[in-house]
Amino acid sequence: MTSIKDNRNNEEFPWYSLLDIELKQKPPEILPVRPRGRPKMSYDRVKLTVYLSSDQTAMVNALIHTLEKNIGSQKVTRGNLMAFAVARLYFAIRKKMDTEGNDLVLPPDVKSFTDLARFLDSDE
Questions:
Q1: Which residues, 6+ apart, have CB-to-CB distance to 52 below 8 Å?
Q2: What is the reported pTM?
Q3: CB atoms closer than 10 angstroms to residue 82
Q4: What is the CB-side half-sphere exposure of residue 55 using CA atoms within 13 A?
């Protein structure tokens, strides 16, 4: 049996010297095993339940599919999409009304979602 340290084989098979180098290295430090289950979220979240029609569910799925294609390898979840939509609406209202902080104010003529859509689409 040929030794890994045989010089004759090192010339013929240069990867032997790479094995020698690996053998001289310290073994990697074994890190503690992560706990089972899902990793902790980067920030606290609260579970909410949303009931959608089949048309609305199809819209959500189409948005997720489109976002995943554009974003790349990251998985976009329904929760991600809902969180984005809520934040986008919140900040759109704040910007439109030029308010700061958590105080949201809408014009008195906004009395339905149709009115809200018209308000957000207006150029005022």
A1: 60
A2: 0.61
A3: 13
A4: 0
